[in-house]
């Protein structure tokens, strides 16, 4: 399983950083760190079991519904 972040929909609220701090971070400007790696959508590498649970929480917590599970 992977996750994808719609960077156009994301408004950098940072709730994902609380749910899965080892996978999501805000940079010094308060922007989701994946913005440096992608412009429209970021898709992660394959997740392990512990990360899958954390990302599921991040999906649920995102107020903009910008994160989704893939696969």
UniProtKB/TrEMBL annotation:
Q: Which cofactor does it need?
A: [3Fe-4S] cluster
Top-rank taxon, per record: Bacteria
* Alphabetically ordered keywords of this record: 3Fe-4S, Electron transport, Iron, Iron-sulfur, Metal-binding, Transport
Record's protein name = Ferredoxin
Q: Which GO terms describe its molecular function?
A: 3 iron, 4 sulfur cluster binding; metal ion binding
Q: Which Pfam families match?
A: Fer4_15 (PF13459)
